[in-house]
Specification:
Beta Polymerase, domain 2, single chain, alpha/beta, six-stranded parallel beta sheet, 16 helices, Rossmann fold
Amino acid sequence: MAEISVIGVNHRTAPVAVREQLSLGPGLVAQLLKAMRAERVFDEALVLDTCNRTECYFVARLAMDPVAHVLGHVARLKGAPPLADTGVFYRHDDLEAIRHLFRVAASLDSQIVGEHQILGQVKDAYRAAAEARTAGFLLNKLLHRAFRVGKRVQTETDLGRGSAGVPQAAVELARHLFSSLAGKTVLLVGAGETAELAARAILRCGAARLIVANRTVERARQLARDLLHPPQAAACAPETDDQACLTEEGLEEAACPALQAQEFEEAAAEGKTTATPPSPPSPRQAATEAIGLGDIPKAIAQADLVISSVGAPEPVLTHAALADVLRRRDAAILMIDIAVPRSVDERLGRLANVYLYNIDDLDRLVARNIERRRQEIPRAEAIVEFEAAEFGRWLASLEVAPTIRLLQERLGDIQKSQIERYGKKFADRGELERFTQAFVGQVLHSPVTFLRDLSENGSTSDRLAAVDMVRRMFKLNENDR
């Protein structure tokens, strides 16, 4: 029987309609873990549930079909018939399961390779299992090693460097050009999904004020409320790029005919941009407000940054409506148009204090970031392979029979060394050898009996924990080197 296994579906094996049937959310995950602990079919279990994957990592107590077992629980919890097509599930055991988890934690298995959010989701899954008391010796060891792998990939490679989505890239660009978005006023034009992604990245970077403009003011108000008070369901966030707020080296200089970074930074140096406060507010402290499109001229006079994602056949931010307002500004303003067709009149970019990017500029930035991530995949995979092999060797070492043999050898070595040290002090060396041999046998009897009994009758988790303790107590791992 395998020590550690994983079953699951993800964005590669199952369409969204199937993943929706299996999606649980934090509440149902807790109930599922509670049921697993009560029935004791699994020694240990952990459920990783995101919008792009549902996986169960487990140490099995009994030989059984884990897919059917877990699907039965999910169906009962969701009040729906079990998923009929089990062919979308994958299963990995032992080293393959270890490698799979490490690739997930390193964001090599994500829809957007290199996104950082998945590591936090893995930590949340472990926290839920720990609270449900379904994470025992092996999962504790495995998950902490997975955290280490994810952190190593983040710090030792450039896999997650630079945004791989247009909304996040827009904020990444703005953050780079302003040096910081802390304390800035941002006007967001549009209230759809793209605008929401950009808005969340803006708030994470410490913007002080966010103005949401939309044709339907109520939709703008709803987005503003969701940004500061996200609904509970938002806990299952998609595995998308979440790192719009980066250090300056996270962004290459991007040439753009409509906006030159050097000119903008010179304008900032001359005091034409608003000052940045020393301490950025958290997203919950940021002020948000909602306005209609007709109020944009008034709002744009106060904004440092404009991001427009509103869809329309003609520009919504027109030269006629905004040119005079923008000319009267003392401060420079950055405008990023991520809509197709373009929603910002390109003539506004010709004004002296207006710096305009469009989606083509961001696409080039995203393409460079994705190519850079692609080039980092071999380095990240090498870290995963090394750590998986190390963990696999440690797990393989926790076999009872080899451990008993090493324990016997270790005490035998101690016996021999003591005979060599004190043998001359005894008249009958043979008697001393027989005495010490009997003594060692008595010392070994209890731990050897204990380990053999666990091997035959104990749970996998208890056996592994006991063997690990014995090996560390007697420093048996040093014999393996």
